[in-house]
Design brief:
The chain is mostly helical. About 60% of the residues lie in helices and about 5% in strands. The strands form two sheets. It has a three-stranded antiparallel sheet. Helix 8 crosses helix 11, helix 13 runs parallel beside helix 17 and helix 22 crosses helix 24.
Length: about 775
């Protein structure tokens, strides 16, 4: 029976704390009693010079009594450990849910209703006279609160179930016989149960499968549990055997959607648990031999079903697990290197042994999630793994490569001429179609885009220092991440000899550009090598994530932005990030007019670059001039309205500003750096929201009537660059003449940015 919302909120955990204390006392007393029995009557009975039947019976009785006392101590200690862990975890969950209900809900104007079965519903109560209209931000916040509370209740239910099961097994069914299952912790009990269920394999009922997923979901990031669970499977080969059978059973056919959903949960849970168990910084953890053994198994057929044709290679099965979890570089990078080297040698090595299904059951495979492949190409899988492992991804693209033999052992005499960035971004690099469709079909060609998409995710993690799909994301940039970003900019731009990026990579490039919008601005402020003379270091020295600026080169930065902003979604991402950066800079320089003006001029130039890049993109998309002009009018304005009218918020997270909401969700999970007043300034929600005032003040409308008066994209861009500056002029007390001069300077900077791109366009044509 599920724990209810009211159970968790109202339960008196003080009684459980008292029980824990009482059991601790019992443990201590039984420990003393067991020691006394062992050293006292048992020792004496063994030394006594008894003979005859009575002596045999008495010695047996003393031995049995001593053992029973020891068993009572073991049982009491097990119960104490389980209850103590349960109290600690439940107290934490209760505190979190009370904060959610008593603090967060009233702040949002939301009420929480218990709807039974371990679930709640959050809703906005009707207030007389209220229209009951809510913004998308309010609706999203309500849903986040509801989901958070339901997760807390589900976690409490799992703890309650695990504790009850552990207590039953510790006590046993015989009231006259102590000493049954013994646990050192609640994790110990949970890992034992998970192992019992895993041994059933595909024979697990849906109820048992749900129980296994529940246990793993809440314990996958616990080193004690995860390490014990994987050891219980036996070893690397047994791990692949278990997961492989579960994946194939769960993805077979299209009838049982519930079983597929359970298998997808298992994939995520096992991946997270493997990342935890193989992290050498955790105690306990699996030995390094697990990684070595996985590499040896990588190119060997794993007979999941003995005698079945086309048994998978170890890496194909392992790839399904690597897609989830933040892995340590010492574990995942040797595997990633080995996989890339195998692919270089023979791009079809793994795809040649995929099963032949005749075009039916295309989802059957080792990636139940269904995202980016069926799971037969481990290259895509391991790149997705790096996309969730930022530190490993950074090292993968910066460390000196290690060469591996086909069997996964190190080739001490081997050398590689190129690093992995150059290899994977090569113009002629051949990606495998990770699909069961016919090799020559259009669908197979589309399947080849899965690899580039995964590469984009890996690069996102490498340059931002956070998982590509983190929500909310954080910036953790350093000299290594910046160096990789420089490689990205040099490879992907309108002048690149390597050719344009795959369409599926463009969203990743846009997010990377938004996360380095300050470095792009810094690079643009170097016309003719004038950056040092203009004092750009002083303008950009204080970033919200504490990083130092990296010069990408003025031309290289411009070419990169022209490529990314030429695409509609890329334009939205970069321009939204640029507006926030500009607003934060003007807020930071309120008391330093000279720097504020210099910063605004450069920011206006970047706005011009982005706007003209999009205009160029539209002209390319719509060769007919009238169609292009119509697109310019229709597509540029409404998304800006969402940014400046409250559709965006700035939150503080680990030294980075997080942009939520604008651009129709394009940059909903993109970390954008802010300009700070001074080094070490703390990013606060108040400061972040203050930057938006420069966008909200003197707000211009983008309603349909207003858009009719906007002849082209330039008018929208001009307003975006000018309105924050007008607010800055007012805040700093500029007179009319000064403001006029400043606006003229901003106009010239904006036009300079547009001209730079139009010149690029002329060269390209």
């Amino acid at each position: 029976m599920a724990v209810t919302y009211m159970d968790l909120v109202e339960v008196d955990l003080g009684k459980l704390a008292t029980a824990v204390s009482d059991w601790k006392s019992a443990v201590d007393k039984l420990k003393t009693a067991a020691r006394n029995a062992r050293r006292g009557m048992k020792a004496k009975s063994e030394k006594a010079r008894w003979a005859g039947a009575n002596a045999t019976v008495t010695r047996g009785f003393v031995t049995k009594t001593t053992q029973e006392i020891a068993d009572l101590h073991t049982e009491a200690h097990s119960i104490y450990q389980v209850l103590n862990d349960a109290h600690t975890e439940l107290a934490s969950l209760q505190k979190q849910i009370k904060t959610a209900v008593q603090a967060d809900a009233p702040t949002l104007g939301v009420r929480v209703e218990d709807i039974g079965d371990g679930k709640v519903r959050c809703y906005f109560p009707h207030i007389r006279g209220d229209t009951d209209e809510r913004t998308q931000d309010q609706l999203d916040a309500k849903q986040e609160l509801e989901s958070r509370i339901n997760r807390l209740i589900a976690h409490a239910t799992e703890i309650d179930t695990s504790v009850a099961r552990a207590l039953r097994k510790s006590h046993g069914s015989d009231p006259h016989n102590a000493g049954h299952s013994s646990y050192k912790s609640l994790d110990d009990a949970q890992s034992e149960r998970a192992a019992e269920l895993a041994k059933l394999g595909p024979k697990m009922t849906d109820k048992q499968f749900t129980e296994l997923n529940s246990i793993m979901k809440w314990n996958a990031k616990d080193a004690d549990f995860s390490t014990a669970f994987y050891k219980s499977l036996g070893g690397p080969e047994e791990t692949l055997d278990f997961y492989g059978r579960m994946a194939l059973e769960g993805t077979q056919g299209d009838d049982n959607r519930e079983r597929l959903a359970l298998t997808r949960q298992l994939q995520r849970n096992m991946g997270n648990a493997l990342a935890t168990a193989t992290d050498p910084d955790n105690e306990p953890h699996l030995s390094a031999s697990w990684g070595e053994e996985f590499r040896k198994l990588g190119t060997r057929p794993v007979e999941i079903y003995p005698g079945a044709p086309n048994p998978p290679y170890g890496y194909q099965v392992l790839g399904g697990l690597l897609r989830y979890g933040n892995y340590d570089a010492e574990f995942i990078n040797p595997i990633a290197e080995h996989v890339v080297q195998l692919h270089q040698k023979d791009p079809d090595f793994f795809m040649n042994n995929k099963p032949v299904t005749g075009g039916a059951d295309l989802d059957w495979g080792y990636n139940p999630s269904g995202r980016n492949g069926a799971g037969y190409d481990p290259l895509t899988s391991v790149l997705e793994g790096l996309g969730h492992s930022p530190e490993a991804a950074k090292r993968f693209f910066t460390d000196e490569p290690t060469v591996y033999k086909e069997d996964g052992t190190v080739d001490k005499n081997g050398t590689l001429s190129d690093g992995y960035f150059d290899v994977l971004n090569g113009k002629d690099f051949e990606w495998a179609p990770d699909s069961l469709v016919h090799p020559g079909s259009d669908e197979a060609q589309h399947a080849r885009t899965m690899g580039p998409d995964a590469l984009g995710h890996a690069l996102e993690a490498a340059v931002t220092g956070d998982a590509w799909d983190a929500d909310p994301p954080e910036l953790h940039r350093d000299s290594d991440t910046a160096e990789i970003m420089k490689q990205v900019i040099n490879r992907y731009n309108v002048a690149s000899e390597g050719g344009p990026p795959s369409e599926v990579m463009k969203d990743s490039l846009a997010k990377m550009g938004a996360s380095y919008i300050d470095d792009l601005n810094y690079s643009i402020m170097d016309f003719g090598g004038s950056g040092d003379a203009l004092g750009r270091d002083a303008l950009f020295e204080n970033s919200s994530d504490g990083s130092t600026r990296t010069p990408f080169g003025e031309q290289q930065a411009r070419n990169f932005m022209m490529l990314v902003a030429g695409d509609e979604d890329g334009y939205k991402s970069l321009t939204a990030a640029q507006q926030l950066l500009m607003a934060s800079g003007l807020a930071a320089f309120e008391t330093d007019e000279d720097r504020g003006v210099a910063f605004a001029q450069n920011a206006a130039k970047v706005h011009g670059i982005l706007d003209e890049s999009r205009s160029h993109g539209i002209r390319e998309e719509f060769k007919d001039p009238e169609e292009a002009q119509q697109m310019l009018q229709e597509q540029n304005g409404e998304w800006r309205k969402s940014l400046v009218s409250g559709g965006a918020t700035v939150a503080a997270t680990a030294g980075a500003a997080i942009l939520l909401g604008p651009a129709a969700g394009v940059v909903a999970a993109t970390a954008v750096p802010l300009v700070m007043e001074s080094a070490g300034s703390a990013v606060s929600t108040a400061y972040g929201n203050h930057t938006l005032e420069y966008l909200k003040d003197h707000e211009y409308t983008n309603d349909p009537q207003a858009l009719q008066a906007v002849q082209d994209v330039e008018k929208v861009g001009e307003r975006a660059a000018t309105q924050p500056v007008l607010n800055f002029a007012q805040t700093t007390g500029m007179g009319n003449n000064e403001t006029t001069d400043l606006v003229n300077e901003i106009e010239q900077s904006y036009l300079a940015g547009k001209t730079a791109i139009s010149n690029n366009e002329k060269v390209a044509s």
